[in-house]
Amino acid sequence: MTSPAAALRTPTFRVLTAGWALTNFADSVLVLILAVWVTDLTGSAALGGATFAALGVPALAAPLLGRLADRVSRRRMLVWTYLGGGLVLVPLLFVTQAGHVGVVYVVTVLYATVAYVTAACQSGLLKDLLPDEALGHANGRLAAIDQVFRIAMPVLGAAVYAWSGPAPLVLAAIAAFGVSALVFAGVRLAESSPDDEAPAGFRADASEGFRYLFSTPPLAGMTTAILWAMAAVGLVNAVAFAILDHLGLSAALLGPLTALQGVAGLAAGLLAGRLMLRLGRPRVFALGLLGLAVGLVPLLGSWVVPAVLGMGVVGFTVTSAVIAYVTERQVLTPARLQGRVGAASHVVLNLPGVLVTLAGAAALAVVDHRVLVAVNVAVCLVCGLFALRLRAPATSPD
Question: Is 389 exposed, middle or buried (0-12, 13-18, 19+ CB in 10 A)?
Protein backbone atom coordinates (compact mmCIF):
# COMPACT_ATOMS: atom_id res chain seq x y z
CA MET A 1 0.00 0.00 0.00
CA THR A 2 1.33 3.45 -0.95
CA SER A 3 2.08 5.64 2.04
CA PRO A 4 0.07 8.87 2.39
CA ALA A 5 3.21 10.98 1.96
CA ALA A 6 4.14 9.13 -1.24
CA ALA A 7 0.64 9.64 -2.64
CA LEU A 8 1.11 13.40 -2.31
CA ARG A 9 4.35 13.36 -4.26
CA THR A 10 2.68 12.56 -7.58
CA PRO A 11 2.99 15.21 -10.31
CA THR A 12 -0.79 15.51 -10.63
CA PHE A 13 -1.34 16.29 -6.96
CA ARG A 14 1.53 18.79 -7.01
CA VAL A 15 0.01 20.57 -10.01
CA LEU A 16 -3.42 20.65 -8.37
CA THR A 17 -1.88 22.01 -5.18
CA ALA A 18 -0.14 24.78 -7.12
CA GLY A 19 -3.41 25.67 -8.85
CA TRP A 20 -5.30 25.79 -5.58
CA ALA A 21 -2.55 27.84 -3.95
CA LEU A 22 -2.93 30.46 -6.69
CA THR A 23 -6.70 30.34 -6.25
CA ASN A 24 -6.32 30.76 -2.50
CA PHE A 25 -4.19 33.83 -3.09
CA ALA A 26 -6.78 35.27 -5.47
CA ASP A 27 -9.62 34.41 -3.05
CA SER A 28 -7.96 36.09 -0.07
CA VAL A 29 -6.04 39.08 -1.41
CA LEU A 30 -9.11 41.32 -1.70
CA VAL A 31 -11.31 40.13 1.17
CA LEU A 32 -10.30 42.78 3.71
CA ILE A 33 -9.32 45.41 1.17
CA LEU A 34 -12.82 45.58 -0.33
CA ALA A 35 -14.23 46.72 3.03
CA VAL A 36 -11.47 49.27 3.55
CA TRP A 37 -11.90 50.55 0.00
CA VAL A 38 -15.66 51.06 0.35
CA THR A 39 -15.11 52.82 3.68
CA ASP A 40 -12.56 55.16 2.10
CA LEU A 41 -14.81 55.89 -0.90
CA THR A 42 -17.92 56.64 1.16
CA GLY A 43 -16.59 57.69 4.54
CA SER A 44 -19.01 55.19 6.08
CA ALA A 45 -17.79 52.29 8.22
CA ALA A 46 -21.29 50.76 7.99
CA LEU A 47 -21.14 50.63 4.19
CA GLY A 48 -17.64 49.19 4.42
CA GLY A 49 -18.84 46.53 6.83
CA ALA A 50 -21.66 45.63 4.42
CA THR A 51 -19.06 44.09 2.11
CA PHE A 52 -18.61 41.30 4.67
CA ALA A 53 -22.32 40.56 4.37
CA ALA A 54 -21.90 40.48 0.59
CA LEU A 55 -19.16 37.88 1.01
CA GLY A 56 -21.69 35.58 2.69
CA VAL A 57 -24.42 35.86 0.03
CA PRO A 58 -23.03 33.04 -2.20
CA ALA A 59 -23.87 30.56 0.57
CA LEU A 60 -27.44 30.78 -0.74
CA ALA A 61 -26.25 29.36 -4.07
CA ALA A 62 -24.12 26.56 -2.56
CA PRO A 63 -26.72 23.79 -3.07
CA LEU A 64 -27.06 24.73 -6.74
CA LEU A 65 -23.28 24.83 -7.20
CA GLY A 66 -22.89 21.45 -5.51
CA ARG A 67 -25.61 19.94 -7.68
CA LEU A 68 -23.86 21.24 -10.80
CA ALA A 69 -20.45 19.93 -9.64
CA ASP A 70 -21.89 16.40 -9.42
CA ARG A 71 -23.28 16.49 -12.96
CA VAL A 72 -20.34 17.86 -14.96
CA SER A 73 -16.56 17.51 -15.08
CA ARG A 74 -15.37 19.17 -11.88
CA ARG A 75 -12.01 20.02 -13.44
CA ARG A 76 -13.67 21.86 -16.33
CA MET A 77 -16.06 23.58 -13.95
CA LEU A 78 -13.07 24.98 -12.07
CA VAL A 79 -11.43 26.15 -15.30
CA TRP A 80 -14.49 28.18 -16.32
CA THR A 81 -15.04 29.44 -12.78
CA TYR A 82 -11.50 30.76 -12.46
CA LEU A 83 -11.70 32.42 -15.86
CA GLY A 84 -14.98 34.01 -14.80
CA GLY A 85 -13.52 34.97 -11.43
CA GLY A 86 -10.80 36.96 -13.17
CA LEU A 87 -13.23 38.64 -15.57
CA VAL A 88 -15.69 39.80 -12.91
CA LEU A 89 -12.89 41.67 -11.15
CA VAL A 90 -12.14 43.87 -14.18
CA PRO A 91 -14.87 46.47 -13.38
CA LEU A 92 -13.11 47.22 -10.10
CA LEU A 93 -10.32 48.85 -12.09
CA PHE A 94 -12.78 51.60 -13.06
CA VAL A 95 -14.19 52.30 -9.58
CA THR A 96 -13.09 55.79 -8.54
CA GLN A 97 -15.90 57.39 -6.54
CA ALA A 98 -18.64 56.74 -3.98
CA GLY A 99 -21.25 56.42 -6.72
CA HIS A 100 -19.50 53.25 -7.92
CA VAL A 101 -19.93 51.39 -4.63
CA GLY A 102 -22.80 49.35 -6.06
CA VAL A 103 -20.34 47.88 -8.55
CA VAL A 104 -18.06 46.85 -5.68
CA TYR A 105 -20.91 45.05 -3.92
CA VAL A 106 -21.94 43.12 -7.04
CA VAL A 107 -18.35 42.14 -7.78
CA THR A 108 -17.86 41.11 -4.14
CA VAL A 109 -20.76 38.64 -4.34
CA LEU A 110 -19.44 37.12 -7.58
CA TYR A 111 -15.88 37.09 -6.26
CA ALA A 112 -16.93 35.23 -3.12
CA THR A 113 -18.82 32.68 -5.20
CA VAL A 114 -15.50 31.28 -6.49
CA ALA A 115 -14.66 29.86 -3.06
CA TYR A 116 -17.97 27.97 -2.96
CA VAL A 117 -17.34 26.49 -6.40
CA THR A 118 -13.88 25.40 -5.28
CA ALA A 119 -15.42 23.74 -2.20
CA ALA A 120 -17.96 21.92 -4.38
CA CYS A 121 -15.32 20.60 -6.80
CA GLN A 122 -12.18 20.12 -4.74
CA SER A 123 -13.51 17.32 -2.56
CA GLY A 124 -14.46 15.10 -5.50
CA LEU A 125 -11.20 15.69 -7.35
CA LEU A 126 -9.15 14.72 -4.31
CA LYS A 127 -11.32 11.65 -3.74
CA ASP A 128 -10.74 10.59 -7.37
CA LEU A 129 -7.00 11.15 -7.18
CA LEU A 130 -5.97 9.86 -3.76
CA PRO A 131 -6.56 6.78 -1.59
CA ASP A 132 -8.62 7.41 1.52
CA GLU A 133 -5.51 7.04 3.71
CA ALA A 134 -3.92 10.05 2.03
CA LEU A 135 -6.91 12.40 2.15
CA GLY A 136 -6.10 13.61 5.65
CA HIS A 137 -2.55 14.51 4.65
CA ALA A 138 -3.84 16.26 1.51
CA ASN A 139 -6.41 18.28 3.45
CA GLY A 140 -3.76 19.16 6.01
CA ARG A 141 -1.42 20.44 3.31
CA LEU A 142 -4.17 22.52 1.70
CA ALA A 143 -5.16 23.89 5.11
CA ALA A 144 -1.51 24.82 5.75
CA ILE A 145 -1.45 26.77 2.49
CA ASP A 146 -4.67 28.50 3.51
CA GLN A 147 -3.10 29.53 6.81
CA VAL A 148 -0.01 30.92 5.07
CA PHE A 149 -2.23 33.28 3.11
CA ARG A 150 -4.23 34.08 6.23
CA ILE A 151 -0.99 35.21 7.86
CA ALA A 152 0.46 37.09 4.91
CA MET A 153 -2.49 38.66 3.09
CA PRO A 154 -3.75 41.14 5.72
CA VAL A 155 -0.28 42.62 6.12
CA LEU A 156 0.72 42.50 2.44
CA GLY A 157 -2.66 43.68 1.19
CA ALA A 158 -2.82 46.60 3.62
CA ALA A 159 0.73 47.67 2.73
CA VAL A 160 0.08 47.61 -1.01
CA TYR A 161 -3.27 49.39 -0.60
CA ALA A 162 -1.69 52.14 1.53
CA TRP A 163 1.18 52.56 -0.93
CA SER A 164 -0.60 52.52 -4.29
CA GLY A 165 -4.32 51.85 -3.85
CA PRO A 166 -6.40 48.79 -4.79
CA ALA A 167 -5.49 48.49 -8.50
CA PRO A 168 -2.31 46.37 -8.05
CA LEU A 169 -4.20 43.95 -5.78
CA VAL A 170 -7.06 43.64 -8.26
CA LEU A 171 -4.62 42.98 -11.09
CA ALA A 172 -2.79 40.39 -8.99
CA ALA A 173 -6.05 38.57 -8.24
CA ILE A 174 -7.03 38.62 -11.93
CA ALA A 175 -3.65 37.19 -12.90
CA ALA A 176 -3.81 34.48 -10.21
CA PHE A 177 -7.27 33.37 -11.34
CA GLY A 178 -6.08 33.31 -14.95
CA VAL A 179 -3.03 31.18 -14.21
CA SER A 180 -5.17 28.85 -12.06
CA ALA A 181 -7.50 28.35 -15.00
CA LEU A 182 -4.53 27.44 -17.21
CA VAL A 183 -3.23 25.00 -14.59
CA PHE A 184 -6.51 23.13 -14.34
CA ALA A 185 -7.01 23.21 -18.10
CA GLY A 186 -3.67 21.47 -18.58
CA VAL A 187 -3.82 18.85 -15.82
CA ARG A 188 -4.89 15.32 -16.70
CA LEU A 189 -7.00 13.50 -14.14
CA ALA A 190 -9.24 10.43 -14.35
CA GLU A 191 -12.46 11.74 -12.86
CA SER A 192 -15.34 9.63 -11.59
CA SER A 193 -18.38 9.60 -13.87
CA PRO A 194 -20.83 12.47 -13.34
CA ASP A 195 -24.06 11.61 -11.57
CA ASP A 196 -26.53 10.63 -14.30
CA GLU A 197 -29.43 9.60 -12.09
CA ALA A 198 -32.72 11.25 -12.98
CA PRO A 199 -33.20 14.32 -10.73
CA ALA A 200 -35.81 13.92 -8.01
CA GLY A 201 -36.77 17.57 -8.39
CA PHE A 202 -34.59 20.63 -7.88
CA ARG A 203 -35.34 21.09 -4.18
CA ALA A 204 -34.75 17.44 -3.29
CA ASP A 205 -31.65 17.18 -5.48
CA ALA A 206 -30.06 20.40 -4.23
CA SER A 207 -30.73 19.60 -0.57
CA GLU A 208 -29.38 16.05 -0.81
CA GLY A 209 -25.97 17.17 0.42
CA PHE A 210 -27.43 18.49 3.68
CA ARG A 211 -29.56 15.37 4.11
CA TYR A 212 -26.48 13.19 3.68
CA LEU A 213 -24.48 15.22 6.19
CA PHE A 214 -27.17 14.98 8.87
CA SER A 215 -28.10 11.33 8.35
CA THR A 216 -24.80 9.44 7.91
CA PRO A 217 -23.04 8.27 11.10
CA PRO A 218 -20.69 9.48 12.45
CA LEU A 219 -20.84 12.38 10.01
CA ALA A 220 -24.25 13.47 11.31
CA GLY A 221 -22.95 13.90 14.85
CA MET A 222 -19.78 15.62 13.64
CA THR A 223 -21.82 18.01 11.48
CA THR A 224 -24.08 18.96 14.36
CA ALA A 225 -21.12 19.47 16.68
CA ILE A 226 -19.08 21.58 14.29
CA LEU A 227 -22.09 23.69 13.31
CA TRP A 228 -22.51 24.77 16.94
CA ALA A 229 -18.76 25.15 17.44
CA MET A 230 -18.36 27.38 14.38
CA ALA A 231 -21.27 29.46 15.60
CA ALA A 232 -19.42 29.85 18.91
CA VAL A 233 -16.29 30.98 17.07
CA GLY A 234 -18.44 33.62 15.35
CA LEU A 235 -19.48 34.88 18.78
CA VAL A 236 -15.81 35.26 19.73
CA ASN A 237 -15.20 37.26 16.56
CA ALA A 238 -18.02 39.59 17.54
CA VAL A 239 -16.40 40.44 20.89
CA ALA A 240 -12.78 40.50 19.70
CA PHE A 241 -12.30 44.24 20.22
CA ALA A 242 -14.00 44.10 23.62
CA ILE A 243 -11.58 41.36 24.67
CA LEU A 244 -8.59 43.43 23.57
CA ASP A 245 -9.90 46.46 25.46
CA HIS A 246 -10.40 44.35 28.61
CA LEU A 247 -6.81 43.12 28.33
CA GLY A 248 -5.56 46.69 27.94
CA LEU A 249 -4.36 46.05 24.38
CA SER A 250 -4.71 48.26 21.32
CA ALA A 251 -7.24 47.28 18.66
CA ALA A 252 -4.35 47.38 16.19
CA LEU A 253 -3.01 44.20 17.78
CA LEU A 254 -5.90 42.18 16.36
CA GLY A 255 -3.86 41.70 13.18
CA PRO A 256 -0.82 40.19 14.93
CA LEU A 257 -3.07 37.98 17.07
CA THR A 258 -4.83 36.76 13.94
CA ALA A 259 -1.42 36.01 12.47
CA LEU A 260 -0.57 34.02 15.61
CA GLN A 261 -3.70 31.95 15.07
CA GLY A 262 -2.61 31.44 11.49
CA VAL A 263 0.82 30.16 12.56
CA ALA A 264 -0.83 27.71 14.96
CA GLY A 265 -3.22 26.68 12.18
CA LEU A 266 -0.25 26.11 9.88
CA ALA A 267 1.24 23.75 12.45
CA ALA A 268 -2.09 21.92 12.67
CA GLY A 269 -2.18 21.53 8.90
CA LEU A 270 1.25 19.93 8.91
CA LEU A 271 0.46 17.55 11.80
CA ALA A 272 -3.22 16.68 11.35
CA GLY A 273 -2.66 13.89 8.84
CA ARG A 274 -0.37 11.99 11.19
CA LEU A 275 -2.65 12.58 14.15
CA MET A 276 -5.63 11.16 12.25
CA LEU A 277 -3.69 8.03 11.28
CA ARG A 278 -2.71 7.51 14.92
CA LEU A 279 -5.93 8.49 16.72
CA GLY A 280 -8.65 8.29 14.07
CA ARG A 281 -10.57 11.14 12.48
CA PRO A 282 -13.49 11.34 14.97
CA ARG A 283 -11.09 11.40 17.93
CA VAL A 284 -8.96 14.19 16.43
CA PHE A 285 -12.18 16.07 15.69
CA ALA A 286 -13.44 15.70 19.27
CA LEU A 287 -10.10 16.67 20.81
CA GLY A 288 -10.01 19.70 18.52
CA LEU A 289 -13.36 20.93 19.84
CA LEU A 290 -12.33 20.29 23.44
CA GLY A 291 -9.06 22.13 22.81
CA LEU A 292 -11.05 25.02 21.36
CA ALA A 293 -12.98 25.29 24.62
CA VAL A 294 -9.73 25.22 26.61
CA GLY A 295 -8.16 27.90 24.40
CA LEU A 296 -11.10 30.24 24.96
CA VAL A 297 -10.96 30.05 28.78
CA PRO A 298 -8.07 32.57 29.22
CA LEU A 299 -10.14 35.17 27.35
CA LEU A 300 -12.35 35.36 30.44
CA GLY A 301 -9.51 36.82 32.47
CA SER A 302 -7.34 39.92 32.46
CA TRP A 303 -3.91 38.35 31.91
CA VAL A 304 -2.34 39.05 28.56
CA VAL A 305 0.11 36.14 28.25
CA PRO A 306 -2.44 33.35 28.93
CA ALA A 307 -4.90 35.04 26.57
CA VAL A 308 -2.32 35.23 23.79
CA LEU A 309 -1.36 31.60 24.31
CA GLY A 310 -5.04 30.72 24.30
CA MET A 311 -5.45 32.32 20.86
CA GLY A 312 -2.66 30.07 19.61
CA VAL A 313 -4.44 27.03 21.05
CA VAL A 314 -7.64 28.13 19.32
CA GLY A 315 -5.84 28.39 15.98
CA PHE A 316 -4.35 24.89 16.29
CA THR A 317 -7.42 23.10 17.59
CA VAL A 318 -10.08 24.61 15.37
CA THR A 319 -7.95 23.91 12.28
CA SER A 320 -7.40 20.31 13.40
CA ALA A 321 -11.14 19.81 13.95
CA VAL A 322 -12.02 21.23 10.54
CA ILE A 323 -9.43 19.07 8.75
CA ALA A 324 -10.69 15.94 10.52
CA TYR A 325 -14.30 16.81 9.68
CA VAL A 326 -13.58 17.52 6.01
CA THR A 327 -11.58 14.30 5.68
CA GLU A 328 -14.30 12.19 7.30
CA ARG A 329 -16.83 13.77 4.96
CA GLN A 330 -14.74 12.93 1.90
CA VAL A 331 -14.12 9.34 2.97
CA LEU A 332 -17.78 8.63 3.75
CA THR A 333 -19.33 10.36 0.74
CA PRO A 334 -19.91 8.46 -2.55
CA ALA A 335 -18.31 10.00 -5.63
CA ARG A 336 -21.66 10.99 -7.13
CA LEU A 337 -22.47 13.17 -4.08
CA GLN A 338 -19.09 14.79 -3.42
CA GLY A 339 -20.12 18.13 -4.92
CA ARG A 340 -23.40 18.48 -3.07
CA VAL A 341 -22.03 17.26 0.25
CA GLY A 342 -18.88 19.38 -0.09
CA ALA A 343 -20.90 22.52 -0.83
CA ALA A 344 -23.27 21.79 2.05
CA SER A 345 -20.40 21.34 4.49
CA HIS A 346 -18.88 24.63 3.33
CA VAL A 347 -22.14 26.32 4.33
CA VAL A 348 -22.09 24.53 7.71
CA LEU A 349 -18.52 25.68 8.36
CA ASN A 350 -19.01 29.31 7.33
CA LEU A 351 -22.59 30.58 7.51
CA PRO A 352 -23.29 30.01 11.25
CA GLY A 353 -20.22 32.02 12.21
CA VAL A 354 -21.26 34.93 9.99
CA LEU A 355 -24.79 35.03 11.40
CA VAL A 356 -23.70 34.69 15.02
CA THR A 357 -21.05 37.39 14.57
CA LEU A 358 -23.83 39.81 13.63
CA ALA A 359 -26.00 38.68 16.55
CA GLY A 360 -23.07 38.83 18.97
CA ALA A 361 -22.23 42.37 17.95
CA ALA A 362 -25.80 43.38 18.80
CA ALA A 363 -25.79 41.44 22.10
CA LEU A 364 -22.57 43.15 23.17
CA ALA A 365 -24.53 46.35 23.67
CA VAL A 366 -26.41 44.81 26.62
CA VAL A 367 -24.26 41.86 27.78
CA ASP A 368 -20.71 41.83 29.15
CA HIS A 369 -18.33 40.22 26.70
CA ARG A 370 -17.18 37.70 29.32
CA VAL A 371 -20.68 36.26 29.44
CA LEU A 372 -20.56 35.68 25.69
CA VAL A 373 -17.10 34.09 25.95
CA ALA A 374 -18.37 31.83 28.74
CA VAL A 375 -21.22 30.74 26.48
CA ASN A 376 -18.65 29.92 23.80
CA VAL A 377 -16.62 27.81 26.21
CA ALA A 378 -19.69 25.89 27.35
CA VAL A 379 -20.91 25.24 23.79
CA CYS A 380 -17.52 23.99 22.58
CA LEU A 381 -17.08 21.83 25.69
CA VAL A 382 -20.46 20.16 25.20
CA CYS A 383 -19.78 19.67 21.48
CA GLY A 384 -16.38 18.12 22.21
CA LEU A 385 -17.73 15.74 24.85
CA PHE A 386 -20.54 14.72 22.51
CA ALA A 387 -18.04 14.12 19.69
CA LEU A 388 -15.92 11.87 21.92
CA ARG A 389 -18.71 9.30 21.72
CA LEU A 390 -18.62 9.16 17.91
CA ARG A 391 -16.92 6.26 16.17
CA ALA A 392 -15.82 5.80 12.55
CA PRO A 393 -17.63 3.09 10.53
CA ALA A 394 -15.78 -0.07 9.61
CA THR A 395 -15.87 0.67 5.89
CA SER A 396 -16.39 3.64 3.60
CA PRO A 397 -18.90 3.79 0.73
CA ASP A 398 -17.89 3.21 -2.85
Answer: exposed
Domain 1-190's class? mainly alpha
Cβ-count burial 218-255 (b if 16+ within 10 Å, e if not): bbebbbbbbbbbbbbbbbbebbbebbbebbebeeeeee
What are the boundaries of each domain within the chain? 1-190, 209-392
What pLDDT is attached to residue 62?
87
Distances (CA, A) of 195 to 69, 202, 337: 9, 14, 8
- What superfamily does domain 209-392 belong to in CATH? MFS general substrate transporter like domains (1.20.1250.20)
In 3D, which of 126, 80, 86 has the Cα closest to residue 107? Answer: 86
Taking the C-alpha atoms of residue 285 and residue 293, their distance in angstroms, rounded to an integer, is 13
Give me the pLDDT at residue 244, please. 81
- Enter the pTM of the model: 0.88
Residue type, 30: L
Instruction: State the Cα–Cα distance between residues 308 and 254, nearest whole angstrom.
Output: 11
| Cα-based torsion angle of the residue sequence 343, 349, 271, 333 in order, rounded to the nearest 10 degrees | -40
Of the pLDDT bands very low, low, confident and very high (cuts 50, 70, 90), residue 154 is confident
| CA atoms within 13 A of residue 194's CA, in its CB half-sphere | 16
Tell me, what amino acid is at 389? R
Asked if 280 and 392 count as a contact pair (C-beta separation under 8 A), the reply is yes
- Decide whether 1-190 matches 209-392 in CATH topology: yes
Q: Which residues contact 370 (CB under 8 A, 6 or more apart)?
A: 246, 300
- What does the DSSP assignment read for 186-234? H----PPPPP-SPPS-HHHHHTHHHHHHTTSTTHHHHHHHHHHHHHHHH
| Res. 312: pLDDT tops 60 | yes
Task: Reply yes or no on whether the pLDDT at 394 is more than 60.
Answer: no
